[in-house]
Amino acid sequence: MKAEGPLGRHRTMHGQVVEWLGRRIVSGELGDGSQLPNEADLAAQLKVSRGGIREAVKALAAKGLVEARPRLGTRVLPRSEWNLMDAEVIIWRGRPADPQFLRELFELRLMVEPGAACLAADRITPEQARTLESAYLAMAEYAPQLPEREAEFVEADLTFHLTLLRASGNQLVEHLGRLLEPSLHHGLEASSHVPGGVAATLPHHKAVFHAVRDHHARAAERSSRRLIEATATAVETMLGPP
Fold this sequence. Notes:
The protein is mainly α. It has two domains: about 15-80, Arc Repressor Mutant, subunit A (Orthogonal Bundle); about 95-240, Four Helix Bundle (Hemerythrin (Met), subunit A) (Up-down Bundle), CATH 1.20.120. The protein has helices at about 15-25, 40-45, 50-60, 85-95, 100-125, 125-140, 150-165, 170-190, 195-215, 215-240, and strands spanning about 65-70, 75. It has a two-stranded antiparallel sheet with strand order 1-2. Helix 1 (about 15-25) packs across helix 3 and helix 6 (about 125-140) runs antiparallel to helix 7. The longest helix is centred in the middle third of the chain and has 25 residues, at about 100-125. The radius of gyration is 21 Å and the shape is elongated. It starts with 12 loop residues before the first helix and ends with a helix. About 35% of the residues are buried.
């Protein structure tokens, strides 16, 4: 029976190699400027073909994580070169939740979501309003049942925020929401773990929903900002000093 390599048995072999290396780069285990093992050694370590290693390195280079040069090998690039909006890079940064990642996520949300809520108050469709209401009601239902119903609560919370971005009627904002979906999921999951955090933020979700549904643009913007600030404050107590 063939021995199983360190990549395990799941996903495509190419995907496993990309993830195995990507996670180690993003976590800092393979730091800025460090050299990856040569192709032959890495292939032997991971029990894959050299061609598989070559393709994985190309995929990581496309994400800005590494640079491969003939005769010089492959080195890890500084974070300033990474494609931080790449879906896989977002996932690798967010799991396990990195404090700096969460802080940057809240900063981005504060720049985007209040404006999206303001637009949504003018542009939301009846179907989107029903989805937003259903998401809020599901959160209210599952909140007293945390942590047992955490998965359902976080899914409803994610639906609420993605629907709000979609209801803005701005395709770029909607696309940003889809792109950030994995990181939003991690951030909302983290906030659901904070003692008292859900109780503090649930009324703000309700205020956002009412303002958007009733087409009060400025109230929607203010309520969205208060919601994110309250969530950020709750999570900050869990993270501790920067």
